[in-house]
Structure formats: C-alpha cells, structure tokens
Amino acid sequence: MSFEQFIFYVLAAIAIISGLMMITVKNPVKAALWLVLAFISTAGLWIMAQAEFLGLVLILVYVGAVMVLFLFVVMMLDINMSILKEGFTRYLPIGALAAVAIFALIYMVVGPDHFGLDKVAAPDMKPAGYSNTTEIAIPLYTEHAYAFILAAVLLLVGIVAAIALTLRRRPTGAVLYQDIDKQNKTLAKDRFEMVKMDAVVEKAVVENEEEDKK
Amino acid sequence: MFDAIQAFLSGFLYDWLAITITLVLQAVAVILPIMLVVAWLTYAERKVIGFMQVRMGPNRVGPLGLLQPIADALKLMTKEVIFPAQSNKYLFIIAPVLAIAPAVAAYAVIPFSDGMVVTDINAGVLYVLAVSSILVYGTIVAGWASNSKYAFLGALRGSAQKISYEIAMGFALVTVLMIAGTMNLTEIVNGQQGGILNWYLLPLLPMFFVYFISGLAETNRTPFDVIEGEAEIVAGFHVDYSGMTFGVFMLAEYAMMILISFMTSIMFLGGWLSPFEGIPGLEALFSWVPQLAWLSIKVAFLLFVFLWLRATFPRYRYDQLMRLGWKVLIPLTIVWVFVVGAMKYFDFGPWFN
C-alpha cells in the first residue's frame, strides 16, 4: 500500500463515518460538528485529487464561515427533540420509500456500471509546478466571466434582501440607539465647560471666630 | 536533510511508515522551537508589561526570573483537571485540541529562510487562511461544552468577532497577492528583494495596519479581548478549564500571535530579506547576518508591538469593535483592492519588479 492510498483510505473512512454520525446523532450541535469533520476530510480528499484550491476554499468558506454561523444558530435554539420526533413511525414508510427511490436513482447514475478503470481512464498525474488555482482562475475570469459576475450579483441581491427583511428602524424616542460615529466624534468641550469664577474670600469667618471667643 | 532520513528509513521499513516517521520528525523540528518561543513569550509579556507599568515583573525563579515559564508549565501540569458537572466530557477535552491544532498546523507552510520550509506549496497563503479559520472551533466548542452561561457568552462573542475580522484579513492578503502575483510564500518574499523600499510595506501601508489589527482581533489580544472580558463574563470561554487544559488554550493563543507576526513579516516586511539590500556600505557590513536572524528580528518586533498594545489600550466596547471591523476595515480594504488593481494595471509606482 502506497502512502497516498493509506491517506486516501483514512480520509475516506473519516468522511463516511462522520457523515453517518451526522445524520444519526441526536444532539443538533454534535451533528453540526460531525458535519464539520466530514467537510474537512472531504477537503483532504480533494487536495489528494490535486484540486488544492477547491479543498482549501471548502475549509475556508464552509468550515470557517458557514458552519460557524450554523453552529451559532443551533446553539442558541432551544430545540425540543420529542416534538420533532412526533409522528416518526407514521411517516416512516413514506420516508423509507423516498430514501430507497433516491438511492436507486443515485445507483443508476453513479453505480459501479459507470466507474472503474476500464470505463474511465485514470487521471493524469499533474507535473510538479501545476497550480490548481491558476487553472481555475483563467477560465473563470475569461470564458465564464459573465456567469461569474452574474453569480456575484445574485449573492449581493440575497444580502440586500436579507438586510431589507430584518432591518427595523423604530422611531427615535421609542427606543434608545447608540450612534457610535457621534460618540467617537465627541470632543471634551462638548461635554465639559470651564467656568471662570472669582475666588471666595473668607475674611468674615475669622472675625466671627474672634467674636465667639470674646 | 529529511529526504536523506526518509531514504535511510525506507531501506528497512514499509514505505508509508518511513514517510510517516519523517513527517513526524519534521513536525517536531518545527513545533518544538515554536513551543519554546511560546514559553518565553509569556515571560517576555510579563516583563515588558511590568516595566511599562514600573514594576519588576517575574524575578524569583532563576536569574532575572528566566526560569519562570518552566515553573508555570510544571504548575499547570500538576494541577487537577476539573470537569464541570453536566458538561459534555468528549467535547470538553476536544476543545483545547481544536484550539491548538490549527495554530500549529499553519506553520507547515511558513518559510523560515530561503528553502527552510516544511512544505513549499503553491497555495500557501490560502492554506494559512483556511487553517486559521478552523481556529474558531476551539472557542465555540469550549464555550458550549462547558455548559456555563459565561463561557457560552464568551464563545459567541469570540466567534462573531473572528469571522468578522477574517474578511478584512483576507482582503488585506488579496492586495499582497495582486502585487506578488503568487500565493507561494517563498515567492512572495523573493518578490520583495531590493531593500526596504521594495518591501510591500510602503505600497500597501494601510493594508499592513489592517492586517495587523485584524491579527490582534483574530488572536483575541487587547484591545479586542472581549472574548475573555474578566469584568463582564469572568474569563470567557475558558472559565471552566483548569490545569493543562487551560494551559493548552494559552499555548494556542501565543502560537497564533507568533503565526500572525510571521505572516506579517513575510507579507509586508520582506520576510528573511535584509533591509539594507542595495545600500552600498551597509549591505556588505550586514551580509554576515543569517536570513533566519532577520526574520526573527522582525517577528520579535511585531510580538513586542502585541505586548506594547496590551499595556497601552483599554478594551473596546463590543459594538465599537464590530463597527471597526465591518464599517471601517472592510470598506477600506475593498477600496484598496481597487486602488492596487488600478496601480497594477497602469504599472504605476516603482515598487513592482
């Protein structure tokens, strides 16, 4: 067994086990963490397939950002598992049917009939200086530039829509807002006034004391 | 050197076993010095802040207190590790591992001098970004597994903060990549040859500051250490950790500080290159200084800045911190990406070789 094969089987085993754990474990936070492990091992498999850009971006985007936000939400939700599990047996037959149908479809498309070294030639090993990043970047910014920009605009629309849906400006006075720009621009003279006053002369007090002694 | 070891081992071992042993040796050769630096960085931190506050700092263990880190490590290792009731045992133990593993793994692509690097991969910058983005799981998992409100609040603050500043950090690195035209860290350093004026520091001065500030936020250092604000949330995500489990979190934080300093030196300060290159008299005068020493000096200075800032600034308020990240640093970096793009397109400036 070569070293690449050894690493491949380790990563593949981790990916499969963590995928299974993700759908079977009860606690949603743990399920999300298993999914993170599945992502990381899949990224490792992609890097082994000499697609290091895809593998690293998978970690950067999905593990580093998307799953963190997902965990965020899952952690703060108070999920009652017993309510979610209501009607499990009632829907089990339909669910099982759907699962079998999907499995059959996947099997027909990517089953062993279509794969194997006799059907598909082994991919070429790339030379040492091969850069997956450059290989992806050149068609992305030349041939597919239009689709690429379109996808970016779609994402921007998504962001604007999400912000527009959740933005809630209540009238000033109903609720107190902190305007940080205003706070930062505050100078000492806006808050603090120097007042010039004449010194208080305490002559009279001494005379009174002398009168008291008499 | 390691190729020779691997060749020697594969003479009488399985091939995969020989490679594994070589990889482990390489990892130890990098991690051991880093951990020693971490240990004495904690000492330096206490001394520097001590002198800045007109105190002595640690001075009891060994001459000048130099053995203090060893005493600290012994203390942490002999202390009992306490598991809070109702906590999630597995995740509670995994969390410190998740915190330190990425911080150490990122050193695999850091070039310490020309050719002195564990793996010289093409996507080096992307690798460092990807690996340091996993770092946030240590915080989140620790906060959640402790089953404590304070730890949980710290974890939420920390994760939101780290994700926000990662964007500014990524954009700052994009400008470096645009000028260097490569993601290979060794080539980025080699692209800065020719003295201090050819470093990316000057053409990318705003990005240098953005990167370093984001680095401060990424490592949860003052003034961005709201994650462990002891006045509000006791000690944040690691409030329930004791003994060496707590020590591992500290190791991870300092290892990450050193990593950020290394990345800043490599990206903006010319890595292992001498600042006097191209200056007639000085270049010859300093030619005996090894490359590793130049890089170490730059890293040490940046680490000093980390400590200096800690002694100088009070903690940010959380909403101000988020505003700085989203409304100041990110727009600045986006504008600067366009500026650098235009500079590159029109061949403007004397800096681009």
From TrEMBL, chain A:
* GO molecular function terms listed in the Swiss-Prot or TrEMBL record: oxidoreductase activity
Subunit info here reads: Composed of 13 different subunits. Subunits NuoA, H, J, K, L, M, N constitute the membrane sector of the complex.
The EC number(s) attached to this protein equal: 7.1.1.-
Upper taxonomic classification of the species? Bacteria, Pseudomonadati, Pseudomonadota, Gammaproteobacteria, Thiotrichales
The task this protein performs is described as: NDH-1 shuttles electrons from NADH, via FMN and iron-sulfur (Fe-S) centers, to quinones in the respiratory chain. Couples the redox reaction to proton translocation (for every two electrons transferred, four hydrogen ions are translocated across the cytoplasmic membrane), and thus conserves the redox energy in a proton gradient.
Compartments where located: Cell membrane
Q: Which InterPro entries match?
A: NADH_UbQ/plastoQ_OxRdtase_su6, Nuo/plastoQ_OxRdtase_6_NuoJ
Q: NCBIfam families from the entry? A: PRK06638.1-4
Tell me the membrane topology, using the record's own terms: Multi-pass membrane protein
Alphabetically list the UniProt keywords. Answer: Cell membrane, Membrane, NAD, Oxidoreductase, Quinone, Transmembrane, Transmembrane helix
Query: Where would you say this protein principally sits, based on its record?
Result: membrane
Regarding protein family, the annotation reads: Belongs to the complex I subunit 6 family.
TM segment ranges? 6-25, 32-49, 55-79, 91-110, 145-167
Catalysed reactions listed for this entry: a quinone + NADH + 5 H(+)(in) = a quinol + NAD(+) + 4 H(+)(out)
Kindly provide the name given to this protein in its UniProt entry: NADH-quinone oxidoreductase subunit J
A Pfam family of the record is Oxidored_q3
Automatic annotation (TrEMBL), chain B:
A Pfam family that the UniProt record links to this protein = NADHdh
The cellular location(s) given in this protein's UniProt record come to:
Cell membrane; Membrane
Catalyzed reactions: a quinone + NADH + 5 H(+)(in) = a quinol + NAD(+) + 4 H(+)(out)
InterPro entries xref list: NADH_UbQ_OxRdtase_su1/FPO, NADH_UbQ_OxRdtase_su1_CS
Q: Which UniProt keywords apply?
A: Cell inner membrane, Cell membrane, Membrane, NAD, Oxidoreductase, Quinone, Translocase, Transmembrane, Transmembrane helix, Ubiquinone
Annotated transmembrane regions: 16-43, 90-112, 124-146, 167-185, 197-217, 254-273, 293-312, 324-346
EC class of this enzyme? translocase
Q: Which PROSITE patterns does the record match to this protein?
A: COMPLEX1_ND1_1 (PS00667), COMPLEX1_ND1_2 (PS00668)
UniProt similarity note: Belongs to the complex I subunit 1 family.
Q: How does it assemble?
A: NDH-1 is composed of 14 different subunits. Subunits NuoA, H, J, K, L, M, N constitute the membrane sector of the complex.
| Name of the molecule in the record | NADH-quinone oxidoreductase subunit H
Origin species: Thiomicrorhabdus marina
